[in-house]
Amino acid sequence: MLKCIIIDDEELSRAIIESYCDKLDHLDAVKQFDNALDAIKYINTNPVDLVFLDIHMPELNGFDFIDSLNNPPNIILVTSDSDFALNAFEYNCIVDYLVKPIKLPRFIKAVTKIEKTQALVSQSHSEVNKELYINIDRRLIKLHIPDIYLIEAKGDYINIKTETQNHIVHTTMKKIEEKLPEDLFLKIHRSYIINLRKIVDIEDNSVLIKKEVIPVSRSNRPELMKRLNLLG
Amino acid sequence: MEPNFNQIEEICAGDISFRNRMIMILKKEFPVEYEELTLLIEKKKYSKSAELVHKIKHKIALLGMEKSYDVAVNFENELKNGKMTLYSEFLLILDKIDQFLKNT
Predict the structure, then answer these.
(1) How do residues B16-56 score in pLDDT, each as one tens digit?
(2) Which of A5, A57, A130, B80 pairs with A202 at a CA distance of 20 to 30 A?
(3) Each residue of A104-139: pLDDT tens digit?
(4) Chain B contact set for A10 (CB, 8 A)
(5) Cβ–Cβ below 8 Å for A11 and B58
(6) What's the CATH fold of domain A131-227?
(7) Could you tell me which chain A residue has the CA closest to the CA of B25?
(8) For the CA atoms of B69, B72, B74, B75, what is the dihedral angle to 10 degrees?
(9) A2-128 CATH pick, 3.40.50.2000, 3.30.1330.10, 3.40.250.10, 3.40.50.2300
(10) What is the ipTM of this complex?
């Protein structure tokens, strides 16, 4: 759900945008303002995802509004003029530019641009979540988490095993467990965390990962069995 | 072109209460803005007049008056430069809208 506000000194224009927001399930128009000053006060304490912003307004215009914010949200400019389109390119936060009177198909097109941008941001976040940095001899080494197949406790250290290398790191099993995605990794023994995708086979109380046989503790076995796509 | 509600009908897409709300806002705001503009022009406050014409031109567009909209755009630009050769033509447009809204 995109939380948005409407800033426009024209009641008609606000009414049209509000009605279009109501038509789209994923837009929540939480507040309307007929001037930019009141909107600045609001947005400083109530973050929003999107602002429908008129350019021509008394006192502060639309561009003044954007300039007053440290970290402006996504903006869709709404105006009767197309003359300001060039200025709009100077602002990264401006996603689109709608000329009044706004028609619904054009409105939807503008909002879709934001959804696409957000999808890209979330994709890049999930890429970041696939990375893990480990500290070895004051060097931060980047590991690609899906490449890890086994983590083994070694006293005050852990041994992180990947397809190509082993890394001995001074940390605890609990700390590394917190950094790993739950859907991919499982602690099967107090000394072993395995990557479920790397299992070759399971026999009684042990798991074969690559060429290593890893013990499964009695208490962890039910969870392991639950996580497998088991036939019969 | 004569004022009409075709654009408003399109925007409202069959939502009668929204259509009525739009027309109510037009009827409430337009006469006030019309009167305010004549006063500002009388006082030769061209910059303020241009701002008001800017607001009114959205209403002209909503009422489907394309050629009148072009006049409004040119008149707004004139006012920004302290001129008003299009004022009488613009007044005719405003009169037309005023009558249309009063008869609706």
Answers:
(1) 999 999 999 999 999 999 999 999 999 999 999 999 999 99
(2) A130
(3) 999 999 999 887 777 666 666 666 568 889 988 888
(4) 55, 58
(5) no
(6) OB fold (Dihydrolipoamide Acetyltransferase, E2P) (2.40.50)
(7) A12
(8) 170
(9) 3.40.50.2300
(10) 0.91
